Amino acid sequence: MNAIIQYILAFSALTIALVYLFKTFVWWPKKRTNKSCGNDDCGCH
User: Fold this and answer.
1) How far apart are CA 36 and CA 44, in angstroms?
2) Which of 3, 4, 10, 16 has its CA 20 to 30 A from that of 32?
3) What digits encode the pLDDT tens for the residues 1-45?
4) What domain of life does the UniProt record list for this protein's source (predicted)?
5) What is the model's pTM?
6) Which residues, 6+ apart, have CB-to-CB distance to 22 below 8 Å?
7) Contact 5, 11 (CB under 8 A)
8) Is residue 45 exposed (0-12), middle (13-18) or buried (19+ Cβ within 10 Å)?
9) 45 contact partners, CB below 8 Å, separation of at least 6
């Protein structure tokens, strides 16, 4: 009986981790915008 509970918990943890990774990197990826100009005169300020 304990083995079944362990399998269910392990599968649940794996599923939650995979859903989190999917949502983070595939479904809603963060837009990477570089707002820093640096030291050169790029005309952005």
Assistant:
1) 9
2) 16
3) 899 999 999 999 999 999 999 988 887 666 655 556 556 666 555
4) Bacteria
5) 0.56
6) none
7) no
8) exposed
9) 37
Q: Confirm if 37 and 45 have CB atoms less than 8 A apart.
A: yes
Joined tokens for residue 26? 């595939």
DSSP tag of 12 = H
Would you give the end-to-end CA distance of the chain in angstroms?
A: 66
Tokens 């790029």 belong to which residue? 42
The label of the residue with tokens 């859903």 reads 19
Residue 36 has a pLDDT of 60
